[in-house]
């Protein structure tokens, strides 16, 4: 009798617990983030990754992710050059527009930085970019920055 009672109690618990409606909260925000910031390890002592590129590369394309439902219209996202992490000179070491577009019905946009060939002058310069978003899409706090380290080959040795 105890076994039957135990099985009946277990059956009732399973029947009544399976009918409980679960109302899980849904996040409905919208963020943008650098793909490289998500998949690369931050540079030593920094909260963002550093990507090394040669000054002969021509241009660098950085993927920007939309973390939200896709939009039915193009979204223009702004970004800035952060002075504290930048030693590169605009117009000399790089050019960039300050905006990028995430096309309608897409989850990705491309930020393009043009890197002119400054020749064999040696050393390197850094360019720190930060996503700012727009009025309806904010930057992800953890993945809003990426730094480009632009390397320049050393000049040929004299007499060589």
TrEMBL record:
**What is the residue range of the signal peptide feature?**
1-21
Superkingdom of this protein's organism = Bacteria
Keyword DNA repair included in the entry's annotation: no
Q: Does the keyword Signal apply?
A: yes
Q: Which UniProt keywords apply?
A: Signal
Protein name per Swiss-Prot or TrEMBL: Calx-beta domain-containing protein
Organism this protein belongs to:
Algoriphagus confluentis
Source lineage:
Bacteria, Pseudomonadati, Bacteroidota, Cytophagia, Cytophagales
């Amino acid at each position: 009798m105890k076994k039957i009672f135990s099985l009946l109690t277990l059956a009732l618990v399973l029947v009544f617990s399976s009918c409980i409606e679960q109302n899980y909260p849904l996040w409905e925000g919208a963020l943008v983030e650098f793909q490289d910031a998500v998949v690369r390890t931050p540079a030593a002592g920094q909260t963002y990754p550093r990507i090394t590129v040669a000054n002969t590369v021509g241009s660098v394309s950085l993927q920007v992710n939309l973390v939200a439902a896709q939009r039915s219209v193009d979204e223009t996202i702004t970004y800035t050059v952060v002075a504290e992490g930048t030693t590169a000179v605009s117009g000399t070491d790089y050019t960039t527009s300050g905006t990028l577009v995430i096309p309608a019905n897409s989850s990705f946009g491309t930020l393009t930085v043009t890197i002119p060939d400054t020749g064999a002058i040696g050393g390197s310069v850094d360019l720190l970019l930060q996503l700012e978003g727009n009025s309806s899409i904010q930057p992800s706090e953890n993945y809003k920055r990426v730094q480009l380290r632009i390397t320049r080959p050393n000049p040929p040795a004299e007499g060589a």
